[in-house]
Amino acid sequence: MPAWEQRKLGEIVDVCSGRDYKHLSKGPIPVYGTGGYMTSVSEGLSYEEDAIGIGRKGTIDHPYRLNAPFWTVDTLFYSLPNQGIDLDFTLCVFLNVDWKSKDESTGLPSLSKQAINETKIWVPSGAEQRAIGAFFSRLDDLITLHQRKRLWFAK
């Protein structure tokens, strides 16, 4: 089994900028900001590739999965894993970075593409990425299921 390699996030993901959506008409494609879902529009920034959303301004320390198709506003980056990089593993990595330590502002928390791209992480082989990503994805699903059950029984 090959050893884990230290890499920079910019070597395994393509960090893309969100854009204003107000020129678009209403439609079926969800628009996301740092706080999550905002509205739905007629066009997407990514139609087929799922990604990881991470705040550029405001909430910079709560990355989350974006299922295609989607649009992101200009305060939310979206990161597309490069070929051979597992999205679920990459989400685990994003969730375990101390993003607040990379805050570049004196007021509203801010994160730059450069700060994301320069972040050093450890990356295993593709097979190990898939196994780790799948494990934590199933664990998240199980936690969500139990939270729903708890809410249902609390009624």
Number of strands: 9
Number of H/I helices: 4
Q: Looking across the biggest beta sheet, what order are the strands in?
A: 2-8-5-6
**Oligomeric state of the chains?**
single chain
Point out poorly predicted stretches. Answer: none
The pLDDT mean sits at 93
Q: How helix-rich are the residues, as a percent range?
A: 25-40%
Distance between the termini: 50 Å
Rg, Cα atoms, Å: 17 Å
How does this structure look, described?
31% of the residues lie in helices and 28% in strands. With 155 residues, the chain is an alpha+beta fold. The longest helix is centred in the C-terminal third of the chain and has 29 residues, at 126-154. The radius of gyration is 17 Å and the shape is globular. The mean pLDDT is 93.
Concise description?
Helix content is 31%, strand content 28%.
Topology:
Elements: E1 5-8, H1 9-12, E2 13-17, E3 26-33, E4 36-41, E5 51-55, E6 64-66, E7 71-72, E8 76-81, H2 87-95, H3 113-118, E9 120-123, H4 126-154
Parallel strand pairs: 3-7
Antiparallel strand pairs: 1-9, 2-8, 3-4, 5-6, 5-8
Keywords for this structure?
155 residues, alpha+beta, 31% helix
